[in-house]
Specification:
alpha+beta, 34% helix, 4 strands
Length: 96
């Protein structure tokens, strides 16, 4: 039932998302959708932890209603300080 509600909210543009901006690499990530802001807030810590483990720096988090067209927006995700992020796609693979 929760998935149906979240899908309806997403269709209407009313679902909540965790938007995470990182300075290094210079990326914007979207995680969601969530049925309410509280659920998104609770989930944000796991996403931040994953990005920190991948070496991301300068992390900022926003909880907002939106309909992102892309879940990851980056110009330098593939090459960060000479390191390749082989697990980057795994971080986002569980999203709807």
């Amino acid at each position: 039932m929760k998935e149906i509600l979240t899908g309806l909210l997403q269709t209407l543009g009313l679902a909540w998302w965790v938007e995470i901006l990182t300075e290094k690499p210079n990326c914007t990530y979207y995680f969601g959708p969530f049925p309410n802001a509280e659920a998104a807030r609770e989930a944000q810590f796991g996403y931040v932890e994953d990005l920190q483990q991948e070496g991301a720096q300068g992390i900022k988090v926003n909880i907002k209603r939106c309909r992102p067209e892309k879940l990851t927006i980056s110009e330098d995700l593939d090459n960060f300080d000479g390191k390749i992020f082989p697990q980057a796609t795994r971080i986002f693979s569980g999203q709807m």
